[in-house]
Amino acid sequence: PPPHCFHPPRLSLTDGGSAWRDWARTPLWRRAVVLRAAAQQLRDHAEFLAGFLVQEVAKPAKDARSEILRSADLIDYTAEEGVRLLAQGQLLASDAFQGADRTKLCLASPVPLGVVLCIPPFNYPVNLACSKIAPALIAGNAVVLKPPSQGALSGVLMARCFQLAGLPDGLLNVVTGRGREIGDYLVEHPGVNCISFTGGNTGLAIARRAAMVPLQMELGGKDACVVCADADLDLAASAVVKGGFSYSGQRCTAVKVVLVEEPVADALVAKVCEQIAQLTVGMPEDNASIVPVVDAKSADFIEGLVRDAEGKGAQLLQEWRREDNLIWPLLLDRVTKDMRLAWEEPFGPVVPVIRIQAAEEGVAHCNESRFGLQGCVFTRDINRALALSSAMETGTVQINAAPARGPDHFPFQGMRDSGIGSQGVTNSIKMMFKTKTTVLNLPQPNYTLG
Ligand code: G3P
Question: Model pTM greater than 0.90?
Answer without folding.
Answer: yes
